[in-house]
Write a structure and sequence with these properties.
12-stranded mixed sheet; rod-shaped
Length: 423
């Protein structure tokens, strides 16, 4: 058939659906404002403001107008084949009607149509609740597929090097292994990542929810969105993200989570229950010496980055030093003080003073905390003539002032502390 003018319009004469079979050629653009089921071949550019669908072939460009619908009249391996460009409206979405093929849609998906070119974006289409849409590539073709949202995808890639999010071989669908014929998860699937190989190339992905168990790492370029949230299912679970923006972005203000930002710019989402996490975080002290602080201690004291660990806390002491002195960097009053009875002497003629608040934590034998007593002479702090004392983990530090070493009557004392690698 060769058609020189053809409009499918709604109205009394065009109610229902027009089915086009065989080969039909139009010499002018076709406007579809009613409903067309294309099962044969249609040659010519087509603009749709009504409904189009089918399992045939459209040779030419297909343009969807705002308010238009693509209808899946039948389930077919390839759907409607479009050889030209598929264009979607600048605003709004194209509705997808899958009511007639609902029984054949599973987690692997059904192809609605394929296109040879065009910026085909699943986000420009909408489908009823219970279904999801995804764009896949098959050779030079882009496929728009609809699938059931009942699928839960489990990350199955193993090893130390990154594995691609978009490779179906890296996923299990429920208890079944993924395959090249299936797909990687997309909105609105649920994703479970419980360790395994680091996930790479996950930028620009939207899923229903992400569950993290164990240690997970995700990198990419773009946004990893979980509309239902990111849930850490294990008390010590972590999710490290590099180059990916999480949406919604977990933060220290989100109940149950905090984010640690490393010096390399990567961010890690932790459960607040991980306060007992002993994973070491390195910080550089004076003389280029490197010290390690348990990440769990930092988490429990409101520290969220490598930079914050090296910054003075509310008590005026670098946060990492507060760890080795047994202090609280969030408490301005948590400083090392001297406590003792002025004038009270020990049997050997010295005044005994306790370094109040200083309590070196257990497990820090590799670091020496040395305390020296100083007195104020009215102008400056000077040594009090006593020997330095090296703190023992879990034990209070007692310092002694020898009155015979300087002017009598000094009442102001302080403790000078040095932190250094243990000899």
């Amino acid at each position: 058939n060769r058609i020189t003018q053809f409009n499918v319009n709604p109205g009394a004469s065009t109610t229902g659906t027009l089915t086009l079979s065989g080969t039909n050629t139009v010499s002018i653009p076709l406007t579809v404002s009613g409903s067309v089921n294309l099962t044969g071949t249609w040659v010519g550019a087509t603009t749709v403001s009504g409904t189009i669908g089918g399992t045939g072939t459209l040779t030419g460009n297909l343009t969807f107008s705002e308010g238009s619908t693509f209808k899946a009249f039948a389930s077919d391996e390839n759907g409607l084949s479009v050889s030209g460009t598929v264009a979607t409206p600048a605003s709004g979405t194209v509705a997808v009607d899958v009511a007639e093929i609902a029984s054949s849609i599973g987690s692997a998906g059904v192809t609605l149509f394929s296109a040879g070119s065009g910026d085909l974006d699943a986000a420009r289409f909408s489908v009823a609740s219970g279904y999801g849409l995804a764009v896949e590539e098959s050779g030079s073709q882009k496929l728009l597929k609809v699938y059931s949202v009942a699928a839960t995808y489990v990350w199955a890639a193993t090893g130390d090097t990154g594995a691609a999010w978009g490779d179906p071989e890296n996923w299990k669908v429920g208890s079944a292994e993924g395959s090249a014929a299936s797909r990687a998860p997309a909105a609105p699937d649920t994703v479970i990542i419980a360790g395994g190989a680091p996930v790479s190339g996950a930028g620009g992905v939207t899923v229903a929810a992400i569950q993290i168990g164990g240690t997970a790492a995700v990198s990419g370029d773009g946004t990893l969105a979980a509309t239902g949230g990111i849930v850490l299912t294990d008390a010590t679970a972590t999710l490290t993200v590099t180059g990916v923006t999480l949406s919604p972005a977990p933060s220290s203000g989100v109940e149950g989570y905090h984010v640690w930002t490393s010096s390399d710019g990567s961010s890690t989402v932790y459960s607040l229950a991980a306060a007992g996490d002993t994973t070491p975080v390195e910080v550089e002290g004076s003389g280029s010496a490197t010290y390690t602080v348990p990440r769990g201690w930092a988490v429990s004291h409101g520290i969220a980055s490598d930079a914050a660990l090296a910054t003075a806390g509310a008590n005026g002491i670098p946060a990492w030093q507060s760890y080795f002195l047994g202090l609280d960097p969030q408490d301005a009053s948590s400083v090392v003080l001297c406590e003792g009875a002025p004038g009270a002497q020990t049997q050997d003629g010295e005044i005994a003073l306790v370094a109040k608040n200083l309590l070196k934590p257990a497990g820090t034998d590799g670091v020496a905390v040395t305390c020296r007593l100083q007195t104020w002479n009215g102008t400056e702090w000077i040594g009090a003539g006593s020997s330095p004392v090296v703190a023992t983990a879990g034990q209070p530090v007692t310092l002694k002032y020898d009155a015979s070493s300087g002017s009598a009557g000094f009442q102001r004392f302080r403790v000078a502390v040095t932190i250094a690698p243990a000899p």
